[in-house]
Design goal:
about 20% strand, seven-stranded mixed β-sheet, disordered C terminus, disordered N terminus, five-stranded antiparallel β-sheet, alpha+beta, 12 helices, about 450 residues, 12 strands
Length: about 450
């Protein structure tokens, strides 16, 4: 409600002035005539006196009325200005209320405002979702403990309402077939009229998943480092014992130590590449990159490896294209995809590399004819240190698997591609091989095919 303006009420004289003007003029004329008659003035003098008196009365009355009218106009203008100010304040309050309501509606965290006794005064959609309250359930004015029967939440609200300060608790709310972890904070809000309770809810599902990934990463990296270090330690002790009695055995164990050191070197290099990829575009230099040249450079490293393992490795250069990318990052992506395909394809297999037009992208495509990847594994294939089952490492034809990687390569591919503004796609069926596509932003077609 708007307050009543504080201006002084209008005086009755302001409205009586126009009505009293004729009376004042007539009174002036009559008075003047009586005075002239008493002193015995002549007729023409009497007329002049009467006329002058009338003119003076009329002028005075007009000036008085004009003055009163000006005063009334000023008072009315003051009322109008004050009314405009209050209307502006009212509109501003409405806008602020709408903005606050919109912010509450869009918040990912749940917000509930309760009375001291626990009655619901306000609740946003996120709070309904986090507490599994139906959208159409009438809950305004009801007690939250009647709507959501969770003992820990009820105890926290009771303690906060009893003056025990801020309360925190972690709930598990049933959502379909799963339990959703919800972190709750209850803050009392003191006021002169009544203490209210503000309940804030946050979904901890993603935070728990990140913590689990962090713990898994620490466990994986510890295992990856522990294995070669233990091997190096064992080989070094054996060499120390055999260096004089059996030089040939010592040479063999030294070779194994060298192999394990190379494994550690690859692991550390891959971890550094992963850290660079996860840093986003910070350490990337975006420029025009000829994707065919990058693929050709990567092929030079893997053609000898493929030939040694009797794998047919082909590059189909059926066009020309330039992408907006970081050249080193693009080469890293190509190396990891081609290296994985060669590593996980058994003898006699075929790996094909190409790039294709994909609208505003160019797609770097690497295909193999291995045993494929199951749908379950496809969901985790880009996680750090995740390796597919042994069926991916061996064709089951007696040839055995090939060199095992660090388990970081595809994670590097995904993070670098995302940093470059691209997308990674995987198509695979068990027994039908795998097809990886990395889509990078296209610059322009500038190179003609040979």
């Amino acid at each position: 409600m708007l307050a009543t303006p504080s201006k002084t009420p209008l005086s009755d004289d302001l409205f009586d002035a126009p009505c009293s003007a004729p009376a004042i003029a007539i009174g002036s004329v009559v008075g003047t005539a009586i005075v002239a008659a008493l002193v015995g003035a002549s007729a023409w003098v009497l007329v002049i006196v009467i006329a002058v008196a009338a003119v003076i009365g009329i002028v005075w009355t007009r000036d008085k009325a004009k003055s009163r009218s000006e005063q009334m106009r000023l008072v009315v203008d003051g009322y109008r200005q004050e009314t405009d100010q209050w209307q502006h304040r009212w509109i501003k309050l409405q806008q602020e209320a709408q903005q606050t309501a919109s912010a509450l509606q869009k918040m990912r965290d749940g917000v509930i405002l309760l009375s001291q006794s626990g009655d619901i005064l306000l609740i946003n959609p996120s709070a309904r979702r986090l507490l599994s309250i139906a959208d159409d359930a009438p809950i305004d004015g009801r007690r939250l403990s009647e709507v959501v029967r969770i003992p820990d939440l009820t105890r926290g609200i009771g303690a906060a309402g009893a003056g025990e300060g801020t309360q925190n608790c972690l709930l598990e709310v049933a959502s379909g077939d799963t339990l959703r972890p919800v972190k709750v904070r209850i803050d009392p809000i003191a006021s002169r009229v009544e203490t209210k309770l503000l309940v804030a809810l946050r979904d901890e599902t993603e935070a728990n998943r990140v913590d689990e990934m962090r713990r898994e990463f620490v466990a994986n990296i510890s295992h990856e480092l522990k294995t070669p270090l233990a091997a190096i330690k064992g080989y070094a002790e054996t060499v120390e014992l055999a260096i004089e009695d059996d030089p040939d055995a010592a040479k063999h164990f030294m070779s194994q130590i060298h192999s394990q050191c190379l494994r550690l070197e690859r692991l550390i290099a891959d971890m550094m590449q992963l850290a660079r990829a996860q840093a986003g575009r910070t350490h990337l230099t975006i420029t025009r990159v000829d994707i065919a040249e990058v693929i050709a450079e990567s092929m030079k490293s893997y053609v000898p490896v493929a030939e040694a393992k009797e794998i047919q490795l082909d590059f189909i250069d059926d066009g020309a294209g330039v992408v907006m990318s970081d050249r080193e990052a693009t080469l890293t992506i190509a190396n990891n995809l081609i290296g994985n395909a060669v590593r996980y394809t058994s003898a006699g297999g075929h790996v094909q590399v190409s790039f294709q037009d994909a609208g505003r992208f160019l797609a770097l495509v690497v295909e193999d004819d291995g045993v494929g990847i199951s749908a379950t594994e496809q969901k985790r294939i880009f996680e750090r240190f995740y390796r597919v089952q042994k069926s991916r490492l061996s064709r089951g034809d007696g040839t055995g698997g090939l060199t095992e990687g660090t388990g970081i390569g595809l994670s590097i591919v995904k993070n670098l591609t995302m940093a470059l503004g691209g997308e990674v796609r995987l198509t695979s069926q068990p027994g039908e091989g795998a097809r990886f596509e990395v889509l990078l932003p296209k610059a322009s077609m500038v190179r003609q095919p040979a």
